[in-house]
């Protein structure tokens, strides 16, 4: 599994070159704040949500969770690879690293995609 650094993610976002950020935490953590432009695909919902939210299996997808101790990003990234996504990267340090660097987060309370809300019990 390839990894990606905070600086590499930041540079991709600055260039606007089409990477897709995926937060692998439950909806309440996503709602509390997430990396700019990220979508939420928590563990247990990958097979249902990925085909709708990530239609391009060749796009660079960066999966992250709270930090290096959290393994959600590993599980979601592995499942994406099993579903045929070819360019999955893992940001191991996660959003704690992003916040500690003083980089912007999306506004707290930003709703998750409707597809996620529909999939939750």
What does it look like?
- This protein is α/β, with parallel strands linked by helices.
- Helix content is 39%, strand content 15%.
- It is built from six helices and five strands.
- The chain has a five-stranded parallel β-sheet with strand order 1-5-4-2-3, covered by helices on one side.
- The longest helix has 11 residues.
- The N and C termini lie far apart (31 Å).
- The relative contact order is 0.25.
- The C terminus is likely disordered.
Oligomer: single chain
Total strand segments:
5
Shape: globular
The end-to-end distance, rounded to whole angstroms, is 31 Å
Class based on secondary structure composition and strand pairing? alpha/beta
DSSP helical segment count: 6
How much is the average pLDDT? 88
Spatial strand arrangement across the major sheet: 1-5-4-2-3
Which regions contain 5 or more consecutive residues with pLDDT less than 50?
110-121
Strand proportion, as a percent range, falls in 5-15%
As a whole number of angstroms, the C-alpha radius of gyration is 13 Å
Compressed to H and E, one letter per element, the order equals EHEHEHEHEHH
